[in-house]
User: Fold these one by one.
Assistant:
Number 1:
Amino acid sequence: MGERVPQHVQNMVLRNYCTKNNKKYLLSAAEYAMSDSYLVLNQILNELQEVDGLVFYSLFQLPTSQLKRLSIYNKILDFKGELHFAVEGLKITCREEINKIETIWLIKQTLPKCYKYGE
């Protein structure tokens, strides 16, 4: 989504979130810098049976494609895992919580197309 936060800052936020929410912080994984690259995420998703879930720095690190996001949510929930978003303080622990995250995504994607006063 065109935003960049240094990796060491993301790691501090992730550690703090895990501590605050009584989650075990195992290891931070950094995605490749190529646009729309999700190679590391896909590798982690293939190893879900070894963890209880994932904590993202932000929900806007997820793919921009809604179908890809839904696939990620469902895969994690199928393994009885949880998906957390540290910056936003949000989580997906059941299918009912997906709508809230998707609504935020749709708003974020729509805002640049909205009329701006004074233009």
Number 2:
Amino acid sequence: MKLAVVRIRGDVRILTQVRDTLIMLGLKQKNHCAIIEDAPNVRGMLARAKSYITWGELDEKTLAALQKKGSKIVRLGPPRKGYGRKGIKLPFSLKGAYGDRKEKINDLLTRMM
């Protein structure tokens, strides 16, 4: 299973461990998207940087559209109509932006392309 991981916050006042984790995932700037395989060590990395990223399971249609744009790391634009109703500082479960979106990541990625 492939996961799409999107960085939603910048570098200001970020912990060194979190910054290193984001670089290992390939997310150097805001609005970058990485396509990665799901594994236990990747889930640990996602948990460490969860306040700065959002992720979910990719479907075939969105995966094909992302692969047209480039390699495993894709630069996207900001999403039309924003990340979430309450902004990037709350988890997705509370109508915010960060954290696990499951299959709803596909909607976000189509709004960012």
Number 3:
Amino acid sequence: MCMRSALGNAGRFLFRLSTAGFQKRFPLTRYSGYKQILSHKANRQGMVLSISHSEILAKLLGFLDSQIIDVSYPEYDLINLPYADYQFNALVADQVLEHIAGDPFQAMAESFRVVKTGGLVLHTSTFFNRVHGENDFWRFSPTALRLMVGCHGEIIDSGGWGNLAAYFLMNLGLNSELIPESRIHPANWIATRNHKKYPIFTWVLARKC
């Protein structure tokens, strides 16, 4: 077993031991971003298209299970979706854009194409992160995501979250560990501390014009 794997196993064991008994909700790298997206939750109407198991984003916005249609990229190509114009009330894609094998600007435009006027488009992605998988092609700052929305929509919310302590924990394999809701736990402090120069998780939420 390599040193990194051994450290990762030990880190996960100690982390889970330290968080036992705490109420936990969101993973480390998504904790603050998901909380921000959750602030836009409302009673939503119509259907939402979820790309590659992004149902949690749809639920954070207020859509119910019965309103969610989930399809997987690349079987359903985000650059050329097999749907008519204005078909959905929203499209959500959680950490998909960086894996698009093509023009990400076109993927963003296609996201808006299938959404009704006044509907929502929500993309999350990553910026300060190590390469993950063979189809890891892109990195997006919050500024880049806003640029890609362009004239397609009105931006409701856009931002990024990250810090160097979180990046260290990620490299120990703790990026998917659920964070305690209690502020007395050090992991909660790390998950809520933000250094704008080191965004790990980035997002943009926009309304189609």
